[in-house]
Amino acid sequence: MSGSIAWAAAVGDALVDGGVDVAAHLPDSRLQGVLARLAERGVAMRCLTREEECVGYAAGRALAGGRPAVLMQCSGLGNSLNALGSLVVPYGIGLPLVLSMRGTLGEANPAQVPIGLATPALLAALAIPVYSIRDPDGRDAASIVGGVLTLARRAGRTAAVALEPELGGGRGAH
């Protein structure tokens, strides 16, 4: 399995193996392989139009006993900060976030750079830890995704997986 396929399948499999039953997401080229793997494995897919809608939908599903994950590009993180900071974090609704990173290593689009570089600090300001996946072969995906799912489900802490540019599969990546 080629690296660009291996990591996406590994992330998707780790989410499913960790019990994710619905993925709230927005379209993104780097996420396509992960989303396809989730759909192949029977996860319900909810493609929404704004990042805060994904967070709100996933929070509702979690409170109703579901096991959602939110998948989005980091450039949309700014849109979701209020939903994360006023609902998810203070009420201990542990959501796993999967963020496709833009605006960092090798980015060619200047509009992506400010939020991309600020993403770790924005998450830290809300006490949301972020863990990066960089291995195109997906060797670290199971442990990182599994750890984020444990933080979310058992500790009630929202946590994020960052899909870094070294993985390929997205614009602006090396």
UniProtKB/TrEMBL annotation:
Thiamine pyrophosphate enzyme N-terminal TPP-binding domain span: 8-98
InterPro entries assigned to the protein according to its UniProt record, in alphabetical order: THDP-binding, Thiamin_PyroP_enz_TPP-bd_dom, TPP_dependent_decarboxylase
Name this polypeptide is given: Thiamine pyrophosphate-binding protein
One Pfam family from the record: TPP_enzyme_N
The keyword Transcription regulation belongs to this UniProt entry's keyword annotation: no
Presence of the UniProt keyword Lyase in the record: yes
Sorted UniProt keywords: Decarboxylase, Lyase
Superkingdom of this protein's organism: Bacteria
Organism: Pseudonocardia yuanmonensis
Stretches of the chain forming a coiled coil according to its record: none
Lineage: Bacteria, Bacillati, Actinomycetota, Actinomycetes, Pseudonocardiales
TM helices/strands, residue ranges: none
